[in-house]
Amino acid sequence: MNLGMENETTEHKRNTSELREAMESVVAILNKHGAGTLYFGVRPSDGEVVGQDVSEKTLRDVSQAFTNRIEPRVYPTVECLVTDDSRSYIKVTFSGDNRPYACDGRYRVRSADEDLPMSVSMLEAMMLERATKRNPWDGRSSGRPLTDVDEATLRRFVEEGNACGRIEAAYSDVGDVLGRLNLIAGDGTLTNAASVLFCPSRIGARLKVGILADHRRVEILDLRQYDSPAYDLIGRAEFYILSNIRRRLVIDGASSARRSPIFRVQLSVRRLSTPSATATGLTAARRYRSTSTRMPST
Question: For residue range 258-278, what is the model confidence (pLDDT) as tens digits?
């Protein structure tokens, strides 16, 4: 029986005497792909099942190797399988989303069927990713009190949520609404998300809108900037775009010609770094060009 060649998510080992090397392959696969499969009793060169002796202790040794050698902990599924010609082999499936993973303190990453040492820059990036996942920016305390909330903006947010069925409860007061939305930090202040969405800006959420003459982006016909709660900025951006959509109609007597603009709208969100906190920035730009279509005279 042949299981195919090794690849970036599959590792073959002849037997469990190669447990240490197998665990290094496991962390390399986890750090690159987050999941994979490991086989014991399979020839690495061609994927042919050669078999090995498998007992309860063998399966337990494999499971304990994951526990004792890999950090953060990974809990695999370990199975004993048998081929049609009665050769026993072990299949181990594993997954994890808490990278970077280390085997005996060493970090590796998969490349084809190799397990390469991880670079310092890649390790730092993965460490930062894990820290951010555990404590995301939007859930951290902003240090701003609930009294900073623009209540009219929050009320409109709830009413629009009620109208589209995304929020069930009606508006009551600032503390109750934000509490139900999990937008109050553990210290009783607003989370960063609440601060950006519903509070007047402290060089926080910022919207820049403009009209460019053409695709070259060298002539700006209009440019404006707004600072206000991010939820207000969404409405401002939509209003600005809709307010600047124009159609041109030319009548020359013999026939009628209509010029219809073709619009391409770009709306992007970026996070701005400020001395006091990270803020969200919104940028909207509108570009257009005109094409002519002839209309039959009447």
Answer: 555 544 444 444 443 333 333
